[in-house]
Amino acid sequence: MNPVLRKLARDVPAMIGLAIVLVVVLIAILGPWLAPYPGDATASHLLRRLKPPTMAFPFGTDNLGRDIYSRVILGARGALQVAMAVVGLAMAIGIPLGLLAGYRNGFFSELIMRVCDVVLAIPQLILALALAQMMGPSLQSAMLALSLTYWPFFTRIVYADARRLRESLFVDALHGIGAGTGRIVFLHILPNAISPIIVRATIGLGFTILTAAVLGFLGMGATPPAPDWGLTIAQSRLYLPDAWWYALYPGLAILLTVMGFNLLGDGLRDLVDPRLRRSR
Amino acid sequence: MTRFLLLRVGTAIPSLIGLLVLTFLLIHAVPSDPAVSLAGDAATPAQIAAIRHQYGFDLPLWRQFLAYAWKALHFDFGESAFSHRAVSLDIAQRLPATLELVIASLVLSVGIGIPLGVFSALRHNQWPDFLLRIVSVAGVAVAAFWVAIMLQLYFSMRLGWFPLRGELSPDMAPPLRITGSVILDSLLTGRFDAFGNALSHLVLPAVTLSLGGMSGIVRFTRAGMLETLQQDFVAYERAMGYPSGRLIWRYVLRNSVTATVTQIGLLFGGLIAGGVVVESIYDWPGVGNYTVQAILTGDRQVMLAVTLMIGVIYTIVNILTDLVQGLIDPRLLRRA
């Protein structure tokens, strides 16, 4: 086995993270087949509303009689889809900007980095809330708002690497054979800067699931009857303290999923940058 | 020191201007015409044009920006569509409660986080260290709004140890308003009954808000301690028989906390942002709660003002963070 992978395999917390992430991905793909009541994403059964956990309904039922266990399972797909779309779009914006700003000099580079500074000067949640509010509350605006506030993280990382690499010998050699900026930047600098990007993307997936849950909780994201975890917790508040199971399990799902991505991301970071090694 | 401060403030000015531009663009990036939404559904094109002129929406963008910046400099953010009062007045009234909550959470995060981080480093790779590492990852990964609901469920509704919401019981006469913070005001006016009541209201929100930050501080302190513990001066002091407790808590810790101080600075902004949801769940009468109301009612003036305010606070705290770092590690000041 590759020595880097072997090192990762010895990192117990990272492996726990990887296991959680794999399970969540599987649940997201197979959700409709795993959930005992796949129809409960939208259906309602008023006769069995707000039942505490039993063998038939392991996590209890909600105010419309829907099986919460099924809805937690069905919610995984939406959470991962949102996170992947947000992080993907943030990468698509942030990485090219960072490469150009780092590789080139001048006004444009300076402008990109100053814009990054300003965007990062406001906590992501607040800016995303303001942006989503301006665009009109919907899942699409929430996702767009999250991407538009997350790209500077990628730009900063890529910028530092592009700055460092443009002085290197192989870039000089590429110049010598007449390679254009686009070719040098995307085909030669980007592959050398990929590891910190992967680390940031992994942590970003977890972080985005958490922030998206907050937006869902505040009614700025998914809309009923979607089995969104954040939204479900918001809906449960009317039925507390009696229906404690209604709020408990979606929150645990968020906690476990985000923990999985964070543990994995930390492990990957240790591999990429042993200087920051957390386990030392 | 003064030179350092001036330099630092100088670099902050472009960021502040950038903040103004960003919030301005936030309004104008929206496809919807503000004049149309202000005029209402039944307005004629002439009425819309009149409103457009009245609010200056027909001016060139750069003139609108200057007008916006001029107003922002004078804390004029217009009127809240929800409370029909000046937004700056509403914010000023709620800011003390928010700061009270944020500072209480910061004290909890730092006061518990640093000792735990040191402890974790001293027990490196033993079970307390493993446990703390897992708990600190969980602390960052948990949704604060869910923690808030769970704590309310258990400690208020089931056990009845702490009040469910608000910053003071409804039957408790509030102390004379001096600073705006109920805790401080009740102490200043000698109202110890109100003080105890306010303190019990503060516990759950502050604990909820502090979890994420505490985890970060544990991790950074632990990493810093582990790095410092390997330095030669520690081995030397140990060999010389220097008292271990004083060595750890005075010299090793001081050399380890620069990264933690940066973290505390970042945390301040994070706490204000996290406070938005936590305040709304505990019905805390602060800016966060106000923001959630603004979100629910679509009150854009308030959203903008809050975004700008948090950005400014963040910038100021960053300057302060650099200063504190300089005080802890004077080598940084000389390098600047």
Mean pLDDT of chain B: 83
Instruction: Please work out how many helical segments of chain A DSSP would assign.
Output: 11
DSSP summary, beta strand count of chain B: 0
Which outline of chain A best applies? elongated
Spatial shape of chain B? globular
Question: Which secondary-structure class do the elements of chain A indicate?
Answer: mainly alpha
Strand content of the residues of chain B, in percent? under 5%
Largest sheet of chain A: none
Output the radius of gyration of chain B: 24 Å
Ranges of chain A where pLDDT stays below 50 over 5 or more residues in a row are: 276-280
Distance between the termini of chain A: 24 Å
What name does CATH use for the topology of chain A?
MetI-like fold
Helix content of chain A: over 70%
| Strand coverage percent of chain A | under 5%
End-to-end Cα distance of chain B: 10 Å
**CATH architecture heading of chain A:** Orthogonal Bundle
Over the alpha carbons, how many angstroms does the gyration radius of chain A reach?
Answer: 22 Å
Largest sheet of chain B, if any? none
Biggest interface, residues from each chain:
A-B, 50 and 59 residues
Uncertain parts of chain B: none
Q: What percentage of residues of chain B falls in helices of 4 or more residues?
A: over 70%
What are the SSEs and their pairings?
The complex is a heterodimer of chains A (280) and B (336).
Chain A: H1 3-10, H2 12-34, H3 68-103, H4 107-120, H5 124-135, H6 139-165, H7 169-176, H8 181-192, H9 194-217, H10 229-236, H11 244-272
Chain B: H1 2-28, H2 34-39, H3 45-54, H4 61-73, H5 87-122, H6 127-141, H7 144-158, H8 182-188, H9 192-229, H10 232-239, H11 244-256, H12 258-281, H13 287-297, H14 300-328, H15 331-335
Helix pairs in contact in B: 1-14, 5-6, 5-9, 5-12, 6-9, 7-9, 7-12, 8-9, 9-11, 9-12, 12-13, 12-14, 13-14
